[in-house]
Every structure is written in structure tokens, then in C-alpha cells.
């Protein structure tokens, strides 16, 4: 059995992005071809295949309605069969991963004879979609976001009150400074007035003293 591997890594922050893998390959009648996809849990995968059988009479590949395609998907770690279907030469399959990890997607024909020389050309598109919505998880996440938002609003309100308090203190300090400066100015004016009055009194006193000496 020939096995080809291609891995699609889907980080959690890119789960909403759909990934498409398209390829074609050749398959003998009694051959099984497997591919490996690395999938997160609860991820929807859709596949579309189209099988063409070689016709000697026309020397080309064409649809044969008697041809059937077997699709089997298995979890590689647990060997759990996720789905096993048989379809027409042009068909689709869909499955949902139950556990995260590698999943083997195997395709084969309904021809079982080892002596068959039939050759198949098979086109395969695999679409790895988004995960299933986790309603309960979303509610929990929304609740956590709401709680964080309330805490953030409370912190913003505390900061706003603190800023208002600081502005009020600055206003009070400014008023006190202006009042103190005003009092200091008047006190300086009063000192100057007292000093002038004292000087005037002393001058008059000295003038009388010298006048009496004469």
C-alpha cells in the first residue's frame, strides 16, 4: 500500500479559515491509497473525488458507472474508524474528527480481483473546514470577557476618581499658594509702611533734638 502524507496545521487563531487540498493520482484496481491529515478535534472535513477508468477501446480515461469508490477514515492513534462509505465514481464524503491528531483517509475501488489490470485516475479535493461551534465554551468565554470588562471599567472609574481627586488637590494647593502669596505681599507692604513711619518719626525726633541744642 502506497501512503502519501500531507499535513494541515490549523492553529487555534486560524480555525475559521477553510483549507483546501486538491490533487490527482493513479490507482490500480486492487490498490488502496491513503493520505494523512492532522486535524484538531471536532473539525468538519469534506471530500470530493472523481474516478476515471482507463478504456482500451478509446485509449482514454472515462467514467464507468460500475466503478465504486470505497472511502475509509480512521484515527491513527486509536485505530477508531470514523467513517467507512462506498460511493459512485463521482461522489463526496464528509466526516467530523472526534479527537485531535493524525487521521488516515484511504480510498480504494470495489474491484477485488488480483488479476485485474484496470487503471484508475482519481481526482481528490479535501476541504478542512472550521471546528464545530462550542456554545457552552463561547458562553463561558463571553462570561469571562464580561467579567474582565467590568473589572476594567471599575479600574477606569477608580483612575477617573483618583484624577479628579488630584485635580481638586491641585486646585486647593493653587488657591492656598495664591492666598499665601497675597498675604506675603501685604505683609511686605505693611513692613515697608512701618519702616517708613519709623524712619519719619526718627528724623523728626532728631530734628527736634538738634533744634533744642541750639
Q: CA-to-CA gap between the ends?
A: 145 Å
Please tell me the overall pLDDT. Answer: 82
Q: Per the principal axes of the C-alpha atoms, what is the gross shape? A: rod-shaped
What strand order characterises the main sheet?
Answer: 1-3-9-6-7
Q: What is the tally of beta strands?
A: 10
**Gyration radius over CA:** 46 Å
Number of helices: 1
Name the poorly predicted regions. Answer: 1-17
Series of H and E elements = EEEEEEEEEEH
Largest sheet geometry? 5 strands, mixed
Structural class: alpha+beta
Binned, the helix content reads 25-40%
Give a quick rundown of the structure.
The protein has one helix at residues 135-213, and strands spanning 2-5, 19-28, 32-39, 43-55, 60-62, 69-75, 81-87, 90-96, 101-109, 119-131. It has 214 residues and is of the alpha+beta class.
What does this protein structure show overall?
This protein is an alpha+beta fold. It is built from one helix and ten strands, in the order ββββββββββα. The chain has a five-stranded mixed β-sheet with strand order 1-3-9-6-7, with no helix packed on it. Strands 2, 4, 5, 8 and 10 form a five-stranded antiparallel β-sheet that branches. A hairpin with a 5-residue loop joins β6 and β7. It is rod-shaped. It starts with a strand and ends with a helix.
Amino acid at each position: 500500500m502506497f501512503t502519501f502524507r500531507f499535513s494541515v496545521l490549523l492553529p487555534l487563531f486560524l480555525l475559521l479559515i477553510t483549507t483546501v487540498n486538491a490533487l490527482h493520482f493513479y490507482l490500480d484496481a486492487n490498490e488502496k491509497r491513503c493520505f494523512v491529515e492532522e486535524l484538531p478535534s471536532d473539525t468538519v472535513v469534506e471530500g470530493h473525488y472523481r474516478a476515471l477508468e482507463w478504456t482500451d477501446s478509446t485509449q482514454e480515461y472515462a467514467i464507468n458507472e460500475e466503478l465504486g469508490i470505497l472511502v475509509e477514515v480512521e484515527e491513527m492513534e486509536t485505530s477508531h474508524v470514523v467513517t467507512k462509505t462506498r460511493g459512485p465514481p463521482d461522489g463526496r464524503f464528509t466526516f467530523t474528527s472526534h479527537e485531535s491528531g493524525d487521521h488516515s483517509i484511504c480510498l480504494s475501488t470495489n474491484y477485488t480481483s488480483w488479476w485485474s489490470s484496470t487503471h484508475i485516475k482519481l481526482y481528490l479535493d479535501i476541504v478542512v473546514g472550521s471546528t464545530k461551534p462550542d456554545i457552552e465554551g463561547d458562553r463561558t468565554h463571553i462570561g469571562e470577557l464580561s467579567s474582565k470588562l467590568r473589572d476594567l471599567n471599575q479600574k477606569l472609574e477608580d483612575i477617573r476618581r483618583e484624577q479628579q481627586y488630584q485635580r481638586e488637590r491641585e486646585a486647593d494647593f493653587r488657591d492656598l499658594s495664591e492666598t499665601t502669596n497675597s498675604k506675603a505681599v501685604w505683609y511686605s507692604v505693611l513692613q515697608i509702611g512701618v519702616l517708613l513711619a519709623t524712619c519719619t518719626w526718627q528724623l523728626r525726633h532728631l530734628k527736634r533734638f538738634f533744634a533744642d541744642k541750639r
